[in-house]
Amino acid sequence: MCGIVGYIGKRNALPIVIDGLRALEYRGYDSAGVALWDGAKIRFEKAAGRVSALESRLSRKSTLWNGKSAIAHTRWATHGKPSDRNAHPHADCQGGIFVVHNGIIENYAELREALIREGHSFLSETDTEVLAHLFERPFLSSGKIFLEDAVLEGLRHVDGTFGIAVISKHDPEKIVVARRGSPIILGVGDEEYLVASDASAIVGVTKNVVYLHDNEAAVLAPSQMQIFNLSKKAIQKSVDKIDWDISQAQKGGFDHFMQKEIFEGPSALENVFLGRLIDPPTGGGSAKLGGIVAVRDRLLRAKKIIISACGTSYYAGLVGKHYFEEFAKIPASVEYASEFRYSNPVIDSDTAAIFISQSGETADTLEALREAKKRGALALGIVNVVGSTIARESDAGVYNHAGPEIGVASTKAFVSQLGALALLALFLGRERGAVSDVLGQKLVRELKAMPAKMKRVLSGDAEIKKLAEKYLKYKNFLYLGRKYQFPVALEGALKLKEISYRHAEGYASGEMKHGPIALIDENFPTVALAPKDPVYEKILSNIQEIKARNGRVLAVATEGDAKIGKLADDVIFIPQTLEMLTPLLSVIPLQLFAYHTAVLLGLDVDKPRNLAKSVTVE
Ligand code: G6P
């Protein structure tokens, strides 16, 4: 939700922050802006629309835009509609202080009123603008003051969340940064420093980073960086190294990030399994999870598991519930993080709470984690982004290692989340004695075989594109699945909604006759998930019921299934695997189907309207 980036150092800052904005655009893309200190004054430019709109405005003046420090922003509107005026950076009354902000200032209305009473005038409808005026206050009263002191003083009045970067002509050779609740990462180069909402905007310049934590601030100057808390007490922090490359955050020959990431599913799964599968010549197979060793005993004592997440990560959690109950024989439930945190959950130290998040920054998931910890539960994270807030605040966890996911619609992260959940369930099942040696080995063997099976499904891409063409005329879809396929139905429908704006409902197939069947006619097709598993016959009956009402059916079924072709209008085949692992295969055609539908409709698949990759507001 909004991306911020800043640079200070020996190079011209403008191209660096513009590159940064492009990398961050997936976080928000309704307007963008930049402010640059050119050695004499602050220049700024803003534009509604994509980063490219800002760039074309800048291209007319770029010769004048030369300076060693700059801050920039790409917006996902919360307060005030997308417009030039509401785009960041926002400035104080005299245009002396410029702020970019990710987060929400909850008490902005009161602050704005108070500042207006004091004589400040506002140009935008945003919550962010109050920050610029708050930071202006100390300069008005005391004249000579450091920018960081003015920022810290201003932040004392603020409720809500912020990740900010500030520059000022009053104290120009620095960028002041602060965070509470919104991610901030600092880049440490050779006599140059960066600030950004995430590493993708930094990795092109340096791989050395410092993660700023909540209630921390920093001053970045060309040759030094100071970090302190919001009371200005100095803090020593270590410099970490990003373990991925800029090329991983580029399209690499694919037309879209989403397409590239769907095709990265098999390698994402290989990466989550790397060094974690135990496959002894004798004895049982199991999983080795370094990230949970420290909490092993507490985890094994847990009497129940609660999984909480949002969006696609939540659907991965629904699959995980079955894993834990079926293989570890431990009761498990799944809750939307936004519901869990307000539900007064009955959890205690006998509960293992698992939080799944690709970004590790989703505000609702983070707050749910904090709530669970407050109530004494063991908090585990299944997180992709290393060093993210959820990863840091979890007691322990499993990193996905799926690499950067840029497409707003999550694809490879889902696959790797299922991989991480399967590993955790296998580990728990073995340790709790619920999975026998033989079953353990069988599971490990099949987990290892999955990436190759996924590649086989991906090789059917051209056929799936043809099906997308065939079904392009339909505006409404029903996705049906049972047990392991129910979350896949939900995820498939979500993918279609997110990027093609087609209405799609995911349903538990058994519930079809309690309502959705009323919708079925020749214009309302059904995507039926029907792999050969113990509930196969049930879904066949559902397909028959749909056909009896003139509904069209596109089925996903297991290779060699001769029956289904006689019932469904179209069939996509996936290889045979263990029931628990079918979601890893059946989700791929649904990802591709949504992708091709959106491309055929001429839509921007990587940046669908109204959405953002990382939702850091409630
Ligand atoms: C947003 C994204 C989804 C994602 C969800 C949860 O809505 O558009 O793709 O599934 O957030 O994000 P997380 O990073 O916590 O997995």
Automatic annotation (TrEMBL):
Gene3D superfamilies: Glucose-6-phosphate isomerase like protein, domain 1, Glutamine Phosphoribosylpyrophosphate, subunit 1, domain 1
One biological process term in Gene Ontology: amino sugar biosynthetic process
Recorded GO MF terms: carbohydrate derivative binding; glutamine-fructose-6-phosphate transaminase (isomerizing) activity
SUPFAM superfamilies: N-terminal nucleophile aminohydrolases (Ntn hydrolases) (SSF56235), SIS domain (SSF53697)
Keywords: Aminotransferase, Cytoplasm, Glutamine amidotransferase, Repeat, Transferase
Annotated Gene Ontology cellular component terms: cytosol
Main location: cytoplasm
Official protein name in the record: Glutamine--fructose-6-phosphate aminotransferase [isomerizing]
Organism: Candidatus Giovannonibacteria bacterium RIFCSPHIGHO2_01_FULL_45_23
Gene field: glmS
